[in-house]
Design brief:
Blueprint (H helix, E strand, L loop, with lengths): L7 E4 L2 E4 L10 H5 L2 E3 L2 E6 L2 E5 L1 H14 L8 H14 L5 E9 L13 E8 L9 H4 L1 E5 L20 H13 L4 E5 L5 E4 L3 E6 L2 E4 L10 H12 L3 E4 L6 H4 L2 E6 L3 E8 L2 E2 L7 H14 L10 E3 L12
Parallel strand pairs: 8-9, 8-15, 12-13
Antiparallel strand pairs: 1-2, 1-7, 3-6, 4-5, 4-6, 5-17, 6-7, 9-10, 11-12, 11-14, 14-15, 15-16
Helix pairs in contact: 2-3
């Protein structure tokens, strides 16, 4: 999927042209994967562009950086303003926002001490992650042969660039085998998550999802769906999910900034339920998109409006 460029990227407190946003080839991040990042969507609502759960995303960015002992030279408030301004300065109505914090150029070596911490925010148009029909028709997935990292190897709760080497292996294998996505198991063989998505199942009228200690990312969309499902009256449980439950579940769906709420209609070529998008998935999709599109009131305060005017870029702290 080709990337559509926007005009400006916010980089270390200043807006630069898209093609001028560069790093040195000896930057620490290129050699050791030392970055943390977020993926955030801005939606075109009836009231104008609005960013979904911006504060929660940047809170996770901050704790991801803390876990990796990266002292970010901008405050969370400054990065929040940068996200809003980057959408506005590029004149975007609906887009994907990518804040990134990384260790820059100073020396080459595993020890990161002394490397500068760099920050950027990009915003650009982006469509449906798993294809245009994924939201309405669902996707076919496989259980990947690569497991998620054990809890004492890499911190799964940090959204760190290095973690996504594992995700790349899962995704490459799935696509090569003719599937849209992979589901990973954890080190004990229980269901974990997709290569870049959290997973929910519907079984005997209950909504179930793996808990945080099964090597999953603490997804912002996941948390939103947990809240919406309870409001809709569904029983929700976070529980260890054996692989075989994937095959006997009535419904399944992915959640995440990229996939939003995407139905899973087959696993390992076995239909999930009757192979169609189920009623629980549809109800949650309707509740989720109703809020992010501005069609129903934002009763949780999840949307941050993007004003037409843009303030001056933030300086380093």
């Amino acid at each position: 999927m080709a990337m559509t460029k926007s005009e400006k990227i916010w980089m270390n407190g200043q807006f630069v042209a898209w093609d001028d946003a560069k790093v040195h080839v000896l930057a620490h991040v290129l050699h050791y994967g030392s970055s943390v990042f977020e993926g955030i969507r801005c939606y075109a609502t009836r009231q104008g562009p609005a960013i979904f759960r911006l504060g929660e995303h940047l809170e996770r960015l901050a704790y991801s950086a803390k876990i990796y002992r990266m002292k970010v030279p901008f405050s969370t408030e400054q990065i929040e303003r940068a996200c809003i301004e980057t959408v506005a300065v590029n004149g975007l109505k609906e887009c994907y926002i990518r804040p990134l914090v990384w260790r820059g150029y100073a020396h080459v070596g595993v020890n990161p001490v002394g490397t500068p911490i760099e920050v950027m925010v990009a915003a650009y148009p982006w469509g449906k992650y798993l294809g245009d029909d994924a939201l309405t028709k669902g996707v076919s997935v496989k259980v990947g042969t690569w497991a998620r990292m054990a809890p004492n190897t890499l911190p799964a709760m940090a959204k760190a660039g290095g973690n996504y080497l594992n995700s790349q292996l899962l995704k490459l294998e799935a696509v090569e085998d003719g599937y849209a996505e992979a589901i990973a198991l954890d080190v004990n063989g229980y269901v974990s998550e997709g290569s870049g998505e959290n997973l929910f199942l519907v079984h005997k009228g209950e909504l179930v999802t793996p808990p945080l200690h099964h090597s999953i990312l603490a997804g912002i969309t996941r948390a939103s769906v947990l809240q919406l499902a309870r409001e809709l009256g569904y029983t929700v449980r976070e529980m260890a999910i054996p692989r075989e439950l994937l095959y006997v579940a009535d419904e399944a769906f992915f959640t995440g900034t990229a996939v939003e709420v995407t139905p899973v209609t087959a696993v390992d070529r076995l239909p999930v339920g009757n192979g169609d998008v189920g009623p629980v998935t549809q109800a949650i999709q309707q509740a989720f998109f109703g809020i992010v599109k501005g069609d129903i009131p934002d009763r949780h305060g999840w949307l941050t409006p993007v004003p037409r005017t843009v303030a001056a870029p933030a300086a380093r702290t």
